[in-house]
Design brief:
This protein is of the alpha+beta class. The chain is built from five helices and four strands; from the N terminus they run αααββαβαβ. The strands form two sheets. Strands 1-2 form a two-stranded antiparallel ribbon. The chain folds into two domains: about 80 residues, Orthogonal Bundle (Arc Repressor Mutant, subunit A), CATH 1.10.10; about 40 residues. Strand 1 and strand 2 form a beta hairpin.
Length: about 130
């Protein structure tokens, strides 16, 4: 399978969410025929129909629903990459990751992390909370 491009996945997700090629095209400020062409190429790439076209719009096929889930995950990851790289462009030089339970967090960890981040403005903080 060829590489899937993010623009096409973003447009596919918009079509699925709006249930309309025309509305998705309006939101993306492009013509509907351009989206239709991309969707046809996408269906050709994956080798199966992704949308059922009806008089009043479109709806994803089971394969389309599956692709939509994957597309959302990929788009969220791409947004995450963009945010991380923007932070590095602004001078961030490192990240701190902490895995903590709620009980540990309730103590003084939040204050300690906040103080650490204030002292090191070039470090970002990402938390992973664990219920235990």
């Amino acid at each position: 399978m060829r590489d899937l491009d993010m623009t096409t996945l973003r447009l596919f997700a918009a079509v699925c969410e709006t249930r309309s090629i025309a509305r998705a095209a309006e939101q993306a400020n492009i013509v509907g025929s351009a989206i239709s062409k991309r969707l046809a190429q996408l269906e050709d790439t994956v080798g199966t129909p992704l949308l059922v076209r009806r008089r009043r719009g479109v709806e994803p096929t089971p394969a389309g629903e599956s692709l939509l889930e994957h597309a959302r995950t990929m788009l969220a990851s791409a947004d995450h990459i963009e945010r991380d790289m923007a932070a590095y462009a602004l001078g961030v030089r490192g990240q701190v990751r902490i895995l903590a339970t709620a009980s540990v967090m309730a103590e003084s960890l939040a204050d300690d992390v906040a103080a650490f981040c204030r002292r090191r403005r070039t470090t970002t903080f990402r938390s992973i909370w664990k219920n235990a």
